[in-house]
Each structure stands twice: as C-alpha cells, then as structure tokens.
C-alpha cells in the first residue's frame, strides 16, 4: 500500500487539506485530550464534498455527502473520503460512523464517469487506486459503519453501502440500489462482486450482476442487499440506534470478528491490486468502451436539458 | 482439453454429423451473411436426439430434447449436445439458447445407466469425459441460457438446468427435480456439487445431496433451485421473454460478468479433470456399484412392464 | 492427529474409562456378533457426564448430556464426549446418533470458563485440543447426527448443534441459541465461523457473530440456524423420524457426500490446528482477557445467589 499512500499524500497536498499524514493531526490530537478539556461535545469537519460531524459523547461520527448534483465519486471526492476515513479511524474518540447524503433523492451515483473518459492512462490508474483505497478503508474499518441510504445508490454508491456493517434504506418507490455496471457495458471488478456475494449470496449476485439490476427498496430488502427499511423521518434515529447496538459490544472482540469475516476478500484484492489497476486501465482505454461511455454521458446531458 | 476435442472429433466422425470442426461450418457461415441474404428467419438443425431451431431475427436458438423414452444422457446424446452447443456458440447469429424437451413429463432423466453398466473402463472414461465436456460448454457458455423445464429432471437432468443462467419450471404436482445420486448409492461429483451450491447455498445443498432429494416444483422454487414457476401453456412465452431481458444487456459486459461468477468452479474442475475421470472409472468399476446399478436397472424394467 | 490421540489416551487412562483405544473394545465387539446372539436390543453406556443408549434394532444411539448445572464443556466432559463418539463411530451396530440433554432448559452452555481462567498455558492447550477434537469427530462423523435441542445452546453448545447433520429445537420463548463469544469479549475461532457460515450463509453470520447474538427459537429457524421447531413432547419422536429418513440412504453414498460437503472446512482446520491452539493460548493468557472472564464469572455467581 506504499504507492497508494504516496498517491494519497500527493493528493492531500494538492487539495490543500489541513492534516497531511506526516504532520501532527490537530483534530485527532484534540480527541485524545481528556473529555473535560473539550469545549463542546460536537466537532465538525468540512471539506468541499463531505461534511463530517463527530459526537464525542457517543463516539459516533456522521459523514454527509454534499457534492451536487449526485455525489458522484470523482477523484477529489474519493480523496476527501479516504482522508476523512483515515482521520476518524485514528481518532480514539470515534468508534462508529454513519454515512448519509445531504443531496435529495441520491445517496451516491457511483464512480464519476468524467474520470474515466478522455483522460490519460496515468489518470485512470490514479483514479482506480483511489477507488480501491476507499473500499479497503471502509470494508476493513475497525469502526462500526452504518449506511443510512436516503436516496438512489447505483454502482459505486451501492459498493459504499455494501462495505458498511449495516444498511438502512429509506422506503421510497423512486429509490433504487444495485451494481448496474453491466447496463453501461462495463464489468464490476472482482472485489465489488466478492463484497456483493458476501451480502446476498452467489445465486442472487450472479443474476443481479449479469442483468445490472437496480433493485427497488422492497426488492433490495428481500434479497438482503439492505438490512432494514424505514420511513425517511426515522432514518437518522434508526441509524443512531443501530450504531449504539453494535457499540455495546467490546470493541476488540467485535473488530477481530469483523476482520475474520472480511479478511479473505480484502486479502484477495490486496494480492491482485496492481493487476486490477492494470486491468481497469486497459479496459477503460479501449475505443469501444470510451465510445459507449461517451454515448452514455451524452444521454445523461440530454436527460437533464 | 485436447484429449476431449480428439474424443469429440472422433465421435463426430462416427456419428456422421455434417459439420466436423476442421471443415467449413456451413450452417455457421450462413449466419455470417448479411441478414437480407437469408431466405427465412428460421433455420432448423436436427440430429437424432436433439432438435435445434434458430430464430435469426431474435438470435435465440431452442434445443428440444427428443430422445425417447426419457431423454437419458447417453454417450450419443451427449456428443450431439456438445456438437450443437459448439455450433451455436460459434454462430454469431445466435446469442441466446432455450433448452426444453419434446418428451411428455420428462425434461431429462440424467445420465444413461446403460453407459455405466457392464462396459469397459475405456468406455467409462470416454463417457465421463463427455459428461464433463457438456457441463464445461454449458456452464461456461457465452450465450444466455434458459432451461424451460417441462418435466421431471433428476440427477444429470438437474445439472443441465443448473448450468443455465435461468430456470423456469412448469407447475405440475408430478414433476420433480434434484441431484438424487445418493438414492442410487452413487455420489454426485464435486463439480455437480459446486454448481448446486452456487444455486442454492451450502446448507440446502448439504441436506439435499445427502438425502438425494427430488424436490417438488414449489419446493424447488422455494429453495432457489428453479427461479420461476409457470403453467405449461406459458412456458415458451416466458422463456422467450427472459432471454430477451438478458439479451438487452451488452453482450461483452454480460459475458465477462458471467465468466467472473463461474470461473472459480469451472477452473476447479479443469484442474482436476483427469483425476475426476479416474475417480469415476474406479468407482463405477467396483463390483458393489455394478451390482447396485444392475439391481436398479432391473427395478426400472419391472416398473415399465 | 497423533498428539491429540496421545492426549486423549492419557485422559482416558486418567478418567478411568473402561475401554481405552489399545485394549479390546468390549462394547464395540459385542456389536459385531450376529444380531441373534445379542441378549437385548438396547445397550446403555454411562460415564459421569454423558449417558449413551444404543438401540441396536434401529442402529441409533442417543447421547444425553447430564452434567449439572448447565452441561458446560469442561475438559472432562469433552474427553467423555470424544471417547463416546469414537466408540460409536467404530461400532458397526451404530449408524445414527441423536444428541440431547437431560438438564432442564439447557442443551449445553458451551465451553467451561473455569478451564480458561487462572490455569497454566499447558492446560489451556490441552483444553483447546479437546475442543478441536470434539468438533473434528462430530462435524466429520460418518454417522447420521441429529441435535435434539431441548434448551438454550450458546457458544460451544451451539457449535455442537451446528456440527450435526440436522437441528431440531424445542419451541420455548426462553430458549436461545447462537455463537455469542463477542459478548464475552472473546472471538469465535475461524472453524466455529466456517461451520456457522456453512449453515446460515456469510451475511447472517457476519452480523450474528459481530453482535454475539443469541437468537430466539423462531429467529434461529428463520435464519436457518435450526432446521425445524417442535413442541417439547414431540422432540424425541421427530428426532427418531429424521434419523430414520437419513438412514434410508445407502451409508456409503451418504457418507461420501457428507465428506465432500464438509471436507474443505475440516481440512482448513487440520492444516492450522497447532497454530489455532497457540492463538487460543496466547489470547486467553492475556491479562485483559483473564480479567474480563473473571468479571463474567463473578457476574454469573451473583446471578445464581
């Protein structure tokens, strides 16, 4: 993961984030002060695309995606996401994380197609490494992670939800969730697939991935893609209650158990990480793929206007 | 797979099929002509045991098993099956395949016990290689494959259904489906088991295989062994609709996704193919097994008369 | 498994059990006499903690845990259990096994915490090897094994049930079952996890293990942790009927099928057995773990008084 760290560090420097890895983590340090010294029980931390709020009394942080129009996972978004995850992971005051969206009707639209279209192979490689890094940090997080899915969540958005410990989705006939890569003429990488299979089993995954299905909320619930469905107004309370339930367990035992359950899939990806980047770069650089992504983007633009 | 190809080529020559691999594929070539040059939208291709019809307008072929009394998988049947699969696979006009039966009340009764009883070890080996070849081609097919199961489907018949992308079964209280090898005193090979586990999960497979269960249609539906149940008169339309749904996806993305889902199980078999043949030959040659198969055949004969 | 055998033999000698492995197995020999020579159809065999009854007419043995107060799996209990399993396994008159409890409201409370608290590392190692041995024998048994769960069954008690071929539980709102190790601040070993995943699938296992859930009977049924739920008075008859159903299959085919289904998980443990013992010893010897187990024992004592 050395290369990834270098890349992230470079991006941190580039994006002007305040807390690079090598310098003192001001925010992290604060959390290690005795509770009595803290002026408030809440600390907030906002970058451009994600708002992070930490309730130090409960030890639960909330990440709010706020990147219009659809919280797409651009390289900038992913970089912010990884940095925020790393900061929370290293912050002893933080034990749980709720991920949600401030954008109406969308949790996250998935990978930003702009990053995969008409760019250099170096850019594709850097982008893909950031996607991997996000998943590695979230799927392997020591924190209790709950996805509070308050909008549609296709492709990479679905992956974020799948990488959490628990998924709560708002009941709304317009919301959908799934790994719909095949619909765009591309293929979900093997570790998206592994994460999906771990949640819904082999048979459901086989059909859903081949058809690139976007499941309605009741269907997602029925196949086990989400764990619970609630009305919008109860989402936040439910997410807080679920995190509290999981935090009632001794951290160490829970973390070791989580690692035991997810290690095989994480290790498999790490063992093939560079190969996976190369595969992505080769695939996305193909004329046919570039053409079909361009057409898809045109279609999206027309839809808007 | 060289040995398998040689065996198949030899059998092709023996069975007098018109299109051996090394000579021009007349039927296949036709399909590469511009659509306008084709005199009809339908082409049919019939061997002794399987009728193949291709609708070139939709790109969907239908294979109809027509080998009385019960579509048992003899060496001749398997050879025809493999040849037909290979021809369709190589035919660009064909993207989807529906498999069904013309024999009342039976989809396929599974491996032909006659091929496993009182024959030479060479014959057992050739037979087993043909069973493997059939599964390798069907489970790994690039086509969209739908089993339209219009009758009972034990053992090898169930394997054919399991190897398709989607299974639709006719609702009929007399029809059953399952891997019932244990009932006959034999053991489903590991790749039958892997295919079964991929469809229904480990626990259901463990019980069903140990008890050699033949499931009723509602039960098969409930455990996920079949995906959908329809009245007989709606089977054909439903199968056509399902293939159309799957063909709406870009071929390349769908095929790569399918390969990703099935590769581990296919590779596992290929890595142990010769060993698996040897195991089968050793097992089936045992006096105790020969005796129990003979008794089973006697029982079947008495049932008939 | 040489070391394990030595350990078991030593314990057999120590516990004064009548039939050590190296001397003639009196009980086993009897079963190899022609049926006509047997004076009765029932033979019973009682150690201190487990009563074993064999119905030679049906070939079904029943093991009744009778170790007050809660059938906890002490080293003595495990040793008796392994010896009884070995004897039944080697007895041709015995083909099926029902495991149940004579203690009201408890099937088995799991590993005896006394064995893990304030003892030597040698003791921890011997204890853990006995836990492994029990699972290896039960999960890999050639007999048809049915758990007749007539009480709560946490942790190691749940493992015993999971290692059988079929689980029937008494419907009682007070009974619970699950791998609740995480609640005690410890971690279920990987082969507990593998056994659990084989029964309920990855997703259910991930949540249940991380939360250390003890499931109610309906919930256990719904997630597939138990196969069937019956009123207390029907438990025995149901267990007998289930064993009979499984014994109707040819032994050889059923046993090979069972082995095929469970081999991967058994082999995985065997390949890491010594490492697993070392991990357990290191983990359990930690001050923090010793402290939390002591506190848990104190709590249990207070509960009683």
Automatic annotation (TrEMBL), chains A, B, C:
Major localization class: mitochondrion
Enzyme type, top EC level: isomerase
Key word tRNA-binding present: no
InterPro entries cross-referenced by the UniProt entry: ClpP/crotonase-like_dom_sf, Enoyl-CoA_hyd/isom_CS, Enoyl-CoA_hydra/iso
Enzyme Commission number(s) of this protein: 5.3.3.8
Cell compartments where the protein resides: Mitochondrion matrix
The entry's keywords: Acetylation, Fatty acid metabolism, Isomerase, Lipid metabolism, Mitochondrion, Transit peptide
Functional pathway: Lipid metabolism; fatty acid beta-oxidation
GO (cellular component) term, any one: mitochondrial matrix
An example molecular function term from Gene Ontology annotations: delta(3)-delta(2)-enoyl-CoA isomerase activity
Purpose: Key enzyme of fatty acid beta-oxidation. Able to isomerize both 3-cis (3Z) and 3-trans (3E) double bonds into the 2-trans (2E) form in a range of enoyl-CoA species, with a preference for (3Z)-enoyl-CoAs over (3E)-enoyl-CoAs. The catalytic efficiency of this enzyme is not affected by the fatty acyl chain length.
PANTHER family according to UniProt: ENOYL-COA DELTA ISOMERASE 1, MITOCHONDRIAL (PTHR11941:SF45), ENOYL-COA HYDRATASE-RELATED (PTHR11941)
Subunit structure: Homotrimer.
Protein name, UniProt field: Enoyl-CoA delta isomerase 1, mitochondrial
Species: Phasianus colchicus (Common pheasant)
Underlying gene: ECI1
